[in-house]
Amino acid sequence: MEKIFYIDATMREGSRTRRIASALIEELGKRYEIETVRLDGADFPAVNGRILQDRDNGIVPEEYAGMARRLADADRIVIAAPFWDMSFPAALKVFFENMSLFHITFDSNDHECYGLCRCEKVLYITTRGMDIHTGDALEQATPYLKALGKLWGLGSLEVVSAENMDYSSQEEIEKKISAAIDRGLAICRDF
Fold this sequence. Notes:
Layout (H helix, E strand, L loop, with lengths): L2 E6 L7 H13 L4 E6 L10 H8 L5 H12 L2 E5 L9 H10 L6 E3 L4 E3 L5 E7 L13 H12 L3 E7 L7 H20 L2
Parallel strand pairs: 1-2, 1-3, 3-6, 6-7
Antiparallel strand pairs: 4-5
Helix pairs in contact: 1-6
Pfam family, one: Flavodoxin_2
InterPro entries: Flavodoxin_fold (IPR003680), Flavoprotein-like_sf (IPR029039), FMN-dep_NADH:Q_OxRdtase_AzoR1 (IPR050104)
Protein name: NAD(P)H-dependent oxidoreductase
C-alpha cells in the first residue's frame, strides 16, 4: 500500500483547518497507509549553531533521521496548517528544518542541490482569517512550500483553502468549510 506522510500543524482543538483536513485524510485513508505527525506539543528544536555543527560531524538524532527517511520515502505528503503571520505556524518551519537533512531529503553534486524524496504530490490544506488568496503577495506559505519542494524533489503542489474566515458569519464559515472539503475530495480522487 502506498504511503502518505501527514503533517498536522494545527494548534487549536476546534481548528477550522483540521476540520477540512480530517475529512480529506479520512478519504485518503481508504487508499493509503497514513503516518501522522502532530506538531502541536511536539518538541522539535530550532536549528542552531550547535545542531549545524553536529550535522557537519555526521551527528543527527536517529529519531529525526528516521522520520526524515520515512518522509523521503512517502508517496504523497499532506500538510494541514492555518494561516499565521502571513505564512504558517513557526512549528511547521522548525519541523521542516529538522527534516531537511543532507543525504536523506536532499543531496548535492557540488554544483547544485537536488531532492531525494519520492513524493509525487503534495496537498496543502489551510484556512485564512483574512481575505487573502493563494498566490496573493501577502500569502507566503505557498511560495515557501514550492521552494522546499524544489529542494527536496517533491512533486506537484495542490492547495485547498478557505479565506476570510475571521470576517464571516458562522453560517458563512460552515459553507466555506463545506466547499473546501468538496474541493479537497475532488483532488483526493486523483491524488
